[in-house]
Amino acid sequence: MRFDFLTLFPDICEAFLSESILGRARKKGIVEFCCHQIRNYSFDKHKKVDDAPYGGGQGMLMMAEPIALCFESLCKKLKIRPYFIYMSPKGVVLNQSKIKELSKLSNIAILCGRYEGVDQRVIDVFVDEEISIGNYVVTGGELPGLILADSISRLLDGVLSNKSCYEDESHFVEKTLEYPQYTRPAVWRKLSVPDVLKSGDYAKIQNWKNEMSKK
Ligand code: SAH
């Protein structure tokens, strides 16, 4: 699967995508991540990418043309049109079933907004879907875009060591959360690990885990 980030801050994305589980998946070639600097597609001699909103209002908006040129150049390079998602607080709030659905795609391009957001026309013409990470606002679409790419990537074969790593987890089955977990030492600051987990009785342990999940 391939993700393309369209951003004014590719280094923010690269820093995250090169480390830990995603960094390893990338090295193994299970997932491809490419970051594209929208500013490189500015037609302005000062490489300007934003301007004041029509009708007044606070702040600046990202202009349509550099984003359009960046996306069109990507489509040309890939020879296909990736599914294009704009990270936006106005979008549908992300959940695990949306992530499962998106994990079936082969190419996703993610538009990361900045400032007050992007010119609506670029959304109307190019964007397939607007996705929000929750009903609050952050300063840019890079963190939301990384959350989207991270949550999808960990469902791909070979990224985690096996399927049960994510199938047992919170939200994999709707309205189900993971049971509490403990590691060594067995007693920490006078608090003991529940006896059942040390019993070695597989059926009893499974039963406890199911009960705790429901709770
Ligand atoms: N003026 C906009 C907020 C802009 S925040 C509004 O009121 O709706 C700047 C950028 O951060 C957005 O373009 C978007 O890409 C990103 N962003 C902020 N909050 C987000 C959220 N909850 N989910 C996804 N992206 C978000």
Keywords summarizing the entry:
215 residues, alpha/beta, Alpha/beta knot, Trp Operon Repressor, Chain A, 2 domains, 5-stranded parallel sheet, two-stranded antiparallel sheet, 9 strands, binds S-adenosyl-L-homocysteine
Count of separate DSSP helical elements:
8
**Lateral arrangement of strands in the main beta sheet:** 2-1-6-5-7
CATH hierarchy, class of the largest domain: Alpha Beta
CATH topology call of the largest domain: Alpha/beta knot
Task: Describe this protein's structure.
- By secondary structure, this protein is α/β, with parallel strands linked by helices.
- The chain folds into 2 domains: 2-153, 3-Layer(aba) Sandwich (Alpha/beta knot); 164-214, tRNA(m1g37)methyltransferase, domain 2 (Trp Operon Repressor, Chain A), CATH 1.10.1270.
- Helices cover 35% and strands 19% of the residues.
- It is built from 8 helices and 9 strands.
- The chain has helices spanning 10-17, 20-28, 64-78, 96-102, 120-126, 142-153, 164-167, 202-214, and strands spanning 2-7, 32-37, 50-51, 61-62, 83-93, 107-112, 129-132, 187-188, 191-192.
- Strands 2-1-6-5-7 form a 5-stranded parallel β-sheet, with helices on both faces. A two-stranded antiparallel ribbon has the order 3-4. It has a two-stranded antiparallel sheet with strand order 8-9.
- Helix 3 (64-78) packs parallel to helix 5.
- The longest helix has 15 residues, at 64-78.
- It is elongated, with a radius of gyration of 21 Å.
- The two termini are 36 Å apart.
- The model has no long low-confidence stretch (mean pLDDT 96).
- Residues 87-90, 112-114, 116-117, 132-134, 136-138, 140-141, 144 line the site of S-adenosyl-L-homocysteine.
